[in-house]
Amino acid sequence: MPMQTAKLSDPAVRAFVSALNAHDQEAFRAALAPDATMADDGSDHDLADWSAREIFDSHGHMEIEKETAGGRALVANYRNDAWGEMRTKWTFDVANGKVVRFETGQA
Fold first, then answer.
1. By CB neighbour count within 10 A (0-12 exposed, 13-18 middle, 19+ buried), where does 87 fall?
2. pTM, full prediction
3. Minimal CA–CA distance to 59: which of 40, 79, 76, 38?
4. What gap in Å lies between CA 56 and CA 62, rounded to an integer?
5. Residues 10-50: pLDDT tens digits?
6. Distance from the first to the final alpha carbon of the chain
7. What's phi and psi for 11, nearest 5 deg?
């Protein structure tokens, strides 16, 4: 059974996942530090381009399977219109209540 987003331990990660699942681009940007970075499968990407393509334009959605590292590491079933559904891992670096970096890839 998926973990409820509202029960995620880290507030910044909870805000990130909530915004992603709501397809709320403004809230998503608000969850990120202004200079946030990201990587997908070990390669850095432009966060704005990647999130537009992999989340918002393709209706991305996360169902959290489990969290570790105080809520800053997730295993989730992620789906979007481009790739279908896959089991993914997500790790987050957080500072001052904002996500400063996240990394994702297949689990």
1. exposed
2. 0.96
3. 79
4. 12
5. 999 999 999 999 999 999 999 999 999 999 999 999 999 99
6. 18
7. -60, -40
